[in-house]
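Inverse folding, one chain.
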C-alpha cells in the first residue's frame, strides 16, 4: 500500500461531492418499518413460547436491508440465511479451536467476510455474528438457536410480507 500524504488524506476524506441518495417515499418507509416489526416480533414471540431465544442483534440490521432495500443482493433470502449461518459457524469454530482471544475474534470476522464473498452470500449484518459469538461464548447449539431458526423466520416473513406489500416480486434470485 502506498503511503499517503496529509494532502492525499484530505482529498480522499473530503468526499466526491455526490448528492445524497433520494429519500424513500413515506409509504416505503412505513412498509419497511412494519416489515421489521413483524419479523422481529415473529422471531421474538416464537422464541419466547418455544423456550429458546431466537433473536440476535444482527437480525435488526437484517431487517433494515430485507424490508428497506429488498432488491439489494445483500437482502436476498439465500444471503440472509446462509450469511448468518456461515458467519456464526465460523465464529463458533474459531472460538472452539483458538479460544476467546481478541485476535481470534478478528480472524473469525475476516474469515466470515471471505467465506460470504467466496460463496456469493454476502449479508453485511451477518459479519457481526462472530463478534456476538465471542462476546457471549455460547455452545454449538447457538448455530441452531438462534442463528438458523431466527434467520429462517426472517426469510419467511420477508417472503410473505414483501410479496404482499410490493408490486415487484421478492426475491430477485435464489
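Residues assigned per position:
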Amino acid at each position: 500500500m502506498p503511503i499517503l500524504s496529509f494532502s492525499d488524506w484530505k482529498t480522499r476524506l473530503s468526499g466526491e461531492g455526490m448528492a445524497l441518495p433520494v429519500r424513500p417515499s413515506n409509504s416505503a418507509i412505513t412498509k419497511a418499518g412494519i416489515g421489521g416489526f413483524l419479523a422481529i416480533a415473529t422471531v421474538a414471540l416464537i422464541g419466547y413460547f418455544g423456550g429458546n431465544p431466537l433473536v440476535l442483534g444482527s437480525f435488526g440490521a437484517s431487517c433494515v436491508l430485507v424490508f428497506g432495500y429488498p432488491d439489494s443482493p445483500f437482502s436476498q433470502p439465500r444471503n440472509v440465511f446462509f450469511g448468518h449461518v456461515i458467519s456464526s459457524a465460523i465464529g463458533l469454530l474459531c472460538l472452539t479451536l483458538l479460544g476467546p482471544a481478541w485476535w481470534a475474534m478478528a480472524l473469525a470476522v475476516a474469515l466470515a467476510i471471505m467465506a460470504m464473498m467466496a460463496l456469493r452470500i454476502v449479508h453485511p449484518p451477518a459479519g457481526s455474528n462472530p463478534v456476538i459469538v465471542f462476546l457471549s461464548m455460547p455452545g454449538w447449539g447457538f448455530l441452531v438457536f438462534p442463528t438458523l431458526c431466527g434467520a429462517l423466520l426472517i426469510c419467511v416473513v420477508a417472503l410473505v410480507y414483501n410479496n404482499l406489500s410490493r408490486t415487484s416480486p421478492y426475491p430477485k434470485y435464489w
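Residues 27-165 form one domain. The first helix runs from residue 6 to 13.
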